[in-house]
Design brief:
Length: 222
């Protein structure tokens, strides 16, 4: 695990003190400190574990509006870029084991640069249509495979949660599965734009928090 979510993280006090505490140089602190612990422990060949509870014991408050969601993901992208750049020495470095060989490549190509192919596609497709060199059939086939793959991952996640905890009603599961079909149209493009903007913010040295409004528990109803 290369990030321990700040809202739910419990760190050993002696390790945090030994590492100099939380850093004020980054947009957020949770992912950076997790990376720093991994680097420090593996560099000094010290045994350690990152443990995760399988059951939910607390809940976070989600962004309240689309603008708030955009602001949150913009900030997340900046700190991912900041952290990956800071600890780039671990990338593909066998000295850091699975962190350097698996974790770092995933975060760089699957998170920090994940916006690139989606944004490039949004530029190339209209350009190809304008130039008259676009073929619709391959796009429809590829888009269908892409959407179904996303739906499959979501359905498997919902199923695993249901098997483990039985906390969702059939209506709730049905609604979540339905949303998994439509998230590829509009929602993912918003996140890609936020990631692109966040990357630009990182390159500009933006450190702003841009606090967003959250859905409070009282807003969720019974």
């Amino acid at each position: 695990m290369l990030i321990v979510s700040g809202g739910f993280a419990i760190y050993r006090r002696d390790i945090v003190v030994e590492l100099g505490g939380f850093s004020s140089e980054f947009t957020c602190e949770d992912i950076e400190l997790t990376f720093r612990v991994h680097e420090y422990m593996r560099k000094n060949k010290r045994q350690y574990k990152v443990l995760s509870l399988p059951e939910a014991v607390s809940w976070t408050e989600a962004p309240y509006t689309w603008k708030d969601l955009y602001s949150q993901r913009h900030r997340w992208q900046r700190v991912i870029a900041e952290t990956c750049w800071k600890y780039k020495n671990m990338l593909f470095n066998p000295r850091y084991g699975s962190v350097g060989l698996i974790g770092m490549p995933y975060y760089i190509f699957g998170e920090a640069l994940a916006w690139a192919p989606e944004v490039v596609a949004l530029v190339i497709i209209p350009l190809a249509i304008f130039l008259g060199v676009f073929a619709w059939e391959p796009l429809v086939i590829f888009l269908g495979i892409y959407v179904l793959a996303n739906v499959l991952v979501s359905v498997l996640a919902i199923h695993l949660h249901d098997v483990g905890f039985r906390s969702l009603s059939l209506k709730e599961m049905g609604r979540m599965i339905l949303l998994s079909f439509i998230e590829s149209f509009g929602y993912r493009q918003l996140l890609s734009y936020a990631r692109l903007a966040g990357t630009i913010g990182f390159l500009r040295g933006d450190k702003g928090w841009k606090k967003s409004n959250r859905v409070e528990r009282k807003d969720l109803g019974d």
